[in-house]
C-alpha cells in the first residue's frame, strides 16, 4: 500500500527539515526550532490519491530567535529539499514553550542567587536538590513586559526524598519570574509565608501500604490476532479506513475518515484534532490567580505525549505508532509507542427476541476500535481517545487524570475557592476547556450544518392530548448565525448534511453531532484568560474551510492579549451553507476538588459522539455475524449478549 499523503513526518523527514533550516541565514546559534510539522497538501490532491501521484512532502517550522525575540514560520519542500517561503510573525508574539526550555528554566531557577536567598529566608532551605520547579506560562495581564519579553512564572515544590511526590509540599507565596530568552530569573515575587504542609503522600506502588488483594488476572485474548490492519499510519478495520497521526502541537490527529458502503469508500471526516485547551483557576490568592495554562498553544500536546506501556495504558492485542519530533536545538527524537491501537468489547450491539420464536433470539456483540494517546503537562495527564464503532458511530473522549495543582494554607484556614485535602494543603477550584476542530466531508466537501431543537407542538385541535413534539431544524447560513451553546430544554444537537446526496428516504445524507457533559466559564468575560480564550464564549462555531485557520485561540496564544482565532475569523460572518465547512466544539469540565482526588485523581470523562443520521439506508451493523466464543471445552458456541 502506498504511503498516505497525510501521514505524519518520518524521522528522516524531520532530519531533512532540520538540515534545510540550519542553512537559512537567519537561523543562528541563538535560534530555537519550536516545532516542525507536516504541511498538509491541498484537499483536492488528497481526494485524487492514489489515482494521481503522491503530492510533494512539505513541512512548516516555527522558529524563535532568542537574541531578538523574533518569531517566524518557514515552509519547506522536503521532496525537492528547498525553502518555499518565510513568514515573519508580528512583533511581540510568543510561540509554544519547548521541552528544552522547561528543563533549562528549572535549572535557571535553582541556580538563581535571588531565588535561593528567598527560599532560605522563608523555609531555611539551602539545598535545592529536592526543589521541584514546574514551568508555568506567564499569560498576559496588560503589562508592557508581557508583550516584550518571553516569560514564565514557575511554581515550586519540595520533595522529602528524590522519588517522593513533591506536589504534596507546595512552596506557597513565592513565584520566580524567568526571562526565557536570557534564561535567567529576573525577580522573585513574594506574597507572604505559608509553612510547608506536614504530610507526604506518595502514590508509587512500592510505597502504598496495605494494597488490596484478591484481584485475579484479567486477560484479553485474541488468539487469531486483531481484526484491524496497519500499514504505516493507515488503519483499516471492519468498514473503516483512516490515518492516525501525532504532531508537536495538537497531539493525536485523525485524517481522511471513510466508511465502505454502497460498494465504495464514503467520506465522513477529513480531519479531527484538538486545537486548544485552557485550564483556568478560580482562586484570587496571589500565588494562584495567574494560573491558566493553554496546554496546546503554550506547551504542545504532542511534545508532552507519553510512551505508552502494554498492560498499563492499553490492554489486549496492541499495535503502536511512534511519533517523530525534534527539540529546540534541532536534535531529532522519537517517542516510542506514542499512539495505541486496539479493539475493545463494548457489550450489546443490537438484540431482539421474538416472543413467538423464543428459542432463536438474535443479538450481536459490539466491539470498537480505539486509537489513543496520553500527554503529561507537568502535574496533569490528559488521555485522548477516538472510538470507531461497527454501526458507524465515531466518539471522542478525553480522560483527565494526574495530580492536582496544589497550594498551602495556614492551620485552621478553610479555603474559600478550593478544597482542603490534607493538613495545610488545598486544591484550588478550576475548569478544563477543550476545543476540537472537525473538518467534515459528508459524502463530499459541500456540507451544511443544521441546528436541531426538539420543541413541543402548540396546544390546538391537532394536538388535543397535548403530547406532540417535533424536531425543529434550522439551516445555518452564516458564521454569526451558527454561534450557539447547548440547550438542555430543547435537547439541542447539530446535524451535518450534504444536500447533493440523498438516502433511501430521499433526504440528504448526514451525521449528527451529539454533545456530552459540558460546562460554561465562571470567570468574567473581562478576565484576561477569557479574552485570550475567546473560543469558550460559545460551545459551537462553524466556519468555511481555510488552510490558515487551524487553532481556536490563534497561532500564537502564548502571552497574547486576546482577540485571535475564532472570535476574529467569525466576525466576518462568512457564508457557510453548502460549503466546505469546519465545525468547532468547545467542551469543559468544572473541577471542585475532592479528598478522593488526592494524591492522584481518578479519571474524569468528557467528550462527544458523531452518529450517522440518514447517512446509511439501514442499520449498517446488520451484517455483523454472531460472535464465536469458547465454551467449557473446546467446542465453539455463538453468543449474543453474554
Give an overview in words.
This protein has a 10-stranded antiparallel beta sheet. Strands 10, 11, 12, 13, 14, 15, 24, 29 and 30 form a 9-stranded antiparallel beta sheet that branches. Helix content is 10%, strand content 40%. A hairpin with a 2-residue loop joins strand 10 and strand 11 (234-237). The chain is built from 9 helices and 33 strands. With 642 residues, the chain is mainly beta. Residues 632-636 have low confidence and may be disordered.
Defining key terms:
nine-stranded antiparallel β-sheet, single chain, ten-stranded antiparallel β-sheet
Secondary structure topology:
Layout lengths: L10 H12 L8 E9 L3 H6 L9 E8 L4 E8 L4 E7 L10 H13 L1 H11 L7 E4 L10 H4 L2 E2 L2 E4 L15 E6 L4 E7 L37 E4 L2 E4 L2 E8 L3 E11 L2 E17 L11 E3 H5 L19 E8 L5 E21 L9 E16 L2 E10 L4 E9 L4 E2 L9 E5 L2 E4 L1 E11 L7 E9 L12 E7 L3 H4 L10 E10 L5 E8 L12 H5 L7 E5 L21 H4 L11 E11 L9 E12 L14 E4 L5 E4 L3
Antiparallel strand pairs: 1-2, 2-3, 3-4, 5-7, 6-8, 8-9, 10-11, 11-12, 12-13, 13-14, 14-15, 14-24, 16-17, 17-18, 18-19, 19-20, 20-31, 21-23, 22-23, 24-30, 25-26, 25-27, 27-28, 28-31, 29-30, 32-33
Physical arrangement of strands within the biggest beta sheet: 16-17-18-19-20-31-28-27-25-26
Distance between the termini: 38 Å
What general outline do the C-alpha atoms trace?
globular
Largest sheet: 10 strands, antiparallel
Tally the beta strands: 33
Work out the helicity level.
under 10%
* Approximate strand percentage: 35-45%
From the alpha carbons, calculate the radius of gyration and give it in angstroms.
26 Å
Mean pLDDT: 95
Number of helices: 9
List unreliable stretches of 5+ residues: 632-636
Please identify the structural class as seen in this structure. mainly beta
Amino acid at each position: 500500500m502506498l504511503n498516505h499523503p497525510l501521514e505524519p513526518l518520518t524521522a528522516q523527514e524531520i532530519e531533512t527539515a532540520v538540515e534545510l533550516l540550519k542553512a537559512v541565514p537567519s537561523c543562528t546559534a541563538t535560534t530555537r526550532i519550536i516545532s516542525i510539522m507536516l504541511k498538509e497538501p491541498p484537499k483536492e490532491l488528497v481526494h485524487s490519491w492514489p489515482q494521481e501521484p503522491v503530492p510533494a512532502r512539505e513541512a512548516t517550522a516555527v522558529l524563535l530567535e532568542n537574541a531578538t525575540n523574533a518569531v517566524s514560520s518557514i515552509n519547506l519542500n522536503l521532496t525537492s529539499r528547498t525553502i518555499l517561503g518565510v513568514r515573519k510573525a508580528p512583533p511581540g508574539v510568543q510561540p509554544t514553550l519547548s521541552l528544552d526550555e522547561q528543563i533549562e528554566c528549572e535549572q535557571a531557577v535553582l541556580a538563581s542567587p535571588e531565588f535561593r536567598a528567598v527560599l532560605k529566608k522563608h523555609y531555611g532551605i539551602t539545598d535545592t536538590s529536592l526543589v521541584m520547579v514546574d514551568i508555568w506560562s506567564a499569560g498576559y495581564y496588560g503589562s508592557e513586559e508581557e508583550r516584550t519579553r518571553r516569560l514564565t512564572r514557575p511554581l515550586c515544590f519540595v520533595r522529602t526524598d528524590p522519588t517522593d511526590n513533591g506536589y504534596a509540599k507546595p512552596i506557597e507565596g513565592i513565584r520566580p519570574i524567568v526571562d526565557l530568552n536570557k534564561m535567567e530569573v529576573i525577580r522573585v515575587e513574594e506574597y507572604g509565608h505559608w509553612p510547608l504542609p506536614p504530610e507526604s503522600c506518595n502514590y508509587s506502588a512500592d510505597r502504598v501500604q496495605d494494597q488490596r488483594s484478591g484481584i485475579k488476572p484479567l486477560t484479553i485474548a485474541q488468539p487469531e490476532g486483531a481484526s484491524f490492519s496497519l500499514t504505516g499510519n493507515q488503519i483499516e478495520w471492519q468498514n473503516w479506513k483512516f490515518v492516525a497521526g501525532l504532531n508537536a502541537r495538537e497531539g493525536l490527529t485523525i485524517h481522511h475518515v471513510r466508511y465502505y458502503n454502497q460498494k465504495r469508500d464514503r467520506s465522513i471526516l477529513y480531519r479531527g484534532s484538538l486545537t486548544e485547551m485552557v485550564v483556568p483557576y478560580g482562586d484570587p490568592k496571589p500565588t494562584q490567580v495567574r494560573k491558566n495554562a493553554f496546554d496546546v498553544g503554550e506547551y504542545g500536546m504532542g511534545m508532552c505525549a507519553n510512551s505508552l506501556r502494554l498492560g498499563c495504558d492499553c490492554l489486549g492485542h496492541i499495535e503502536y505508532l511512534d511519533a517523530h519530533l525534534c527539540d529546540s536545538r534541532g536534535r531529532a527524537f522519537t517517542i516510542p509507542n506514542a499512539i495505541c491501537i486496539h479493539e475493545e468489547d463494548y457489550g450489546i450491539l443490537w438484540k431482539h427476541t421474538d416472543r413467538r420464536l423464543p428459542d432463536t433470539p438474535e443479538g450481536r456483540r459490539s466491539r470498537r476500535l480505539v486509537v489513543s494517546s496520553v500527554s503529561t503537562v507537568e502535574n496533569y495527564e490528559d488521555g485522548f481517545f477516538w472510538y470507531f464503532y461497527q454501526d458507524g458511530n465515531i466518539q471522542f473522549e478525553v480522560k483527565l487524570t494526574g495530580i492536582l495543582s496544589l497550594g498551602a494554607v495556614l492551620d485552621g484556614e478553610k479555603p474559600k475557592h478550593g478544597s482542603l485535602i490534607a493538613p495545610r494543603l488545598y486544591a484550588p477550584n478550576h475548569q478544563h476547556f477543550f476545543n476540537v476542530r472537525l473538518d467534515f466531508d459528508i459524502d463530499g466537501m459541500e456540507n451544511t450544518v443544521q441546528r436541531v431543537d426538539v420543541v413541543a407542538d402548540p396546544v390546538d385541535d391537532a394536538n388535543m392530548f397535548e403530547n406532540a413534539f417535533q424536531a425543529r431544524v434550522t439551516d445555518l447560513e452564516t458564521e454569526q448565525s451558527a454561534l450557539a451553546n447547548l440547550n438542555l430544554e430543547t435537547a439541542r444537537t447539530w446535524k451535518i448534511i450534504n444536500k447533493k446526496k440523498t438516502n433511501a428516504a430521499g433526504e440528504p445524507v448526514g451525521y449528527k453531532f451529539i454533545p456530552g457533559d459540558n460546562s460554561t466559564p465562571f470567570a468574567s468575560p473581562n478576565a484576561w484568560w477569557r479574552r485570550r480564550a475567546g473560543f469558550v464564549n460559545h460551545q459551537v462555531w462553524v466556519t468555511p474551510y481555510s488552510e490558515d485557520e487551524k487553532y481556536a485561540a490563534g497561532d500564537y496564544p502564548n502571552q497574547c492579549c486576546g482577540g485571535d482565532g475564532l472570535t476574529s475569523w467569525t466576525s466576518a460572518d462568512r457564508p457557510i451553507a453548502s460549503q466546505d465547512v469546519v465545525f468547532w466544539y468547545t467542551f469543559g469540565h468544572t473541577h471542585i476538588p475532592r479528598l478522593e482526588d488526592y494524591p492522584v485523581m481518578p479519571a474524569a470523562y468528557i467528550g462527544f459522539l458523531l452518529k450517522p443520521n440518514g447517512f446509511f439506508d439501514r442499520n449498517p451493523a446488520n451484517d455483523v455475524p454472531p460472535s464465536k466464543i469458547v465454551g467449557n471445552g473446546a467446542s465453539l458456541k455463538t453468543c449474543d449478549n453474554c
